[in-house]
Amino acid sequence: MSESSVVVTGGAGFIGSHLVESLVDEGLSPVVIDDLSSGDPARLSSELRFEQLDITDAQALDRVIGSAKPSAIFHLAAQSSVTVSVQDPGRDCQVNVRGTLNVLESSRRLGTPVVFASTGGALYGNSAPRPTPESSIPAPWRRMAHPNGLQRRTSTRGRNQRVSPMPFAGSATSSVHDKAPMARPA
Ligand SMILES: NC(=O)c1ccc[n+]([C@@H]2O[C@H](COP(=O)([O-])OP(=O)(O)OC[C@H]3O[C@@H](n4cnc5c(N)ncnc54)[C@H](O)[C@@H]3O)[C@@H](O)[C@H]2O)c1
């Protein structure tokens, strides 16, 4: 296993591309997996290994992750648009639940840890302590009652023990893809 190799799914996306930049600064060699459905390859250095593939394609995903022999997998590939999740909940589920499971299966096969952050603090509502521990009881805001909210809860709670979740940041934010700012309930 190459200690300097890491995989970033969704590495051409908003969070993923910043993470890739930081990993490079740390001297690591990220292998980026992204289907470019919403990501932008211009965010990535041309010197990086980039694999354009859909994480719902389990075989292709496993092949790329297997060949990268990463010391960690950062999973940020997602159908992240709330609007799309309402228009096409089946695709939302395919990418965010099935695709996440595919990543976890590759990680299990290779014994590689996964770092996974699928939601900001929105899942835990307004009265949760900050920073919010994972043991907090979910109390989603009303806006979480859409398919995207359901998949976030499913993929966060459905993970296996190999997943190393990122600690939640102190402030809960709405997704940058939400059209209107998310109003907190009183
Ligand atoms: N941006 C935020 O404010 C925020 C807050 C909390 C949590 N998150 C979570 O962080 C993760 C990443 O968010 P983001 O804002 O960077 O989203 P983003 O849409 O900018 O990035 C997601 C990336 O995944 C890629 N992708 C989508 N479907 C794919 C597929 N089937 N196969 C391969 N790649 C695919 C897209 O092309 C894109 O590059 C999501 O799980 C999101 O819910 C984001």
Task: Explain how this protein is built.
The chain has 186 residues and is α/β, with parallel strands linked by helices. Helix content is 33%, strand content 13%. The protein is built from five helices and six strands, in the order E-H-E-E-H-E-H-H-E-H-E. The protein has helices at 14-25, 58-68, 82-87, 89-110, 147-157; strands at residues 5-9, 29-34, 49-52, 72-75, 114-116, 163-165. Strands 3-2-1-4-5-6 form a six-stranded parallel beta sheet, with helices on both faces. Helix 2 (58-68) runs parallel beside helix 4 (89-110) and helix 4 packs parallel to helix 5. The longest helix has 22 residues, at 89-110. It is globular and about 45 Å long. The chain starts with a strand and ends in a 21-residue tail after the last strand. Residues 158-186 have low confidence and may be disordered.
Compose a concise summary of this entry.
The protein is an alpha/beta fold. The protein contains five helices and six strands; from the N terminus they run βαββαβααβαβ. It has helices at about 15-25, 60-70, 80-85, 90-110, 145-155, and strands spanning about 5-10, 30-35, 50, 70-75, 115, 165.
Helix/strand layout:
Blueprint: E1 5-9, H1 14-25, E2 29-34, E3 49-52, H2 58-68, E4 72-75, H3 82-87, H4 89-110, E5 114-116, H5 147-157, E6 163-165
Parallel strand pairs: 1-2, 1-4, 2-3, 4-5, 5-6
The chain binds nicotinamide-adenine-dinucleotide (NAD).
Residues 10, 12-16, 34-39, 54-56, 76-80, 95, 99, 117-120, 173, 175-176 line the site of nicotinamide-adenine-dinucleotide.
